[in-house]
Write a structure and sequence with these properties.
The chain is an all-beta fold. It is built from no helices and ten strands. A six-stranded mixed β-sheet has the order 2-10-9-4-5-6, with no helix packed on it. A four-stranded antiparallel β-sheet has the order 1-3-8-7, with no helix packed on it. Strand 4 and strand 5 form a beta hairpin.
Length: 114
């Protein structure tokens, strides 16, 4: 059973930065494509960025140029560097495989507000 633990969220002003981490356990992490998802209040969860086992990345238009995903397979960890944050980035952020599994972590809340 996969366990995913997200961390690094918080309250930040518009234009600020945060770095999220996702620690995975219980599976062969390095072979999977991983992604960061987010769910804003009153909206469905959406996939915003993907990283393959080989390190190729793909970003939703809404975060392209501002977010950067990376992974450390030795640590079974995926990171999300978020810069130039906007109020519309406010959401609970989750990591999971792509396509996602049924095993979701608790997520980490990012609030962008002045």
């Amino acid at each position: 059973q996969v366990q995913l633990v997200e961390s690094g969220g918080g309250l930040v002003q518009p234009g600020g930065s945060l770095r999220l981490s996702c620690a995975a356990s219980g599976s062969i992490f390095s072979i999977y494509t991983m992604g960061w998802y987010r769910q804003a209040p009153g909206k469905q969860r959406e996939l915003v960025v993907v990283i393959t086992s080989g390190g190729s990345t793909n970003y939703a238009d809404s975060v392209k140029g501002r977010f950067t995903i990376s992974r450390d397979n030795a640590k079974n960890t995926v990171y999300l560097q978020m810069n130039s944050l906007k109020p519309e980035d406010t959401a609970v952020y989750y990591c999971n495989r792509v396509p996602s599994t049924n095993y979701w972590g608790k997520g980490t809340l990012v609030t962008v507000s002045s």
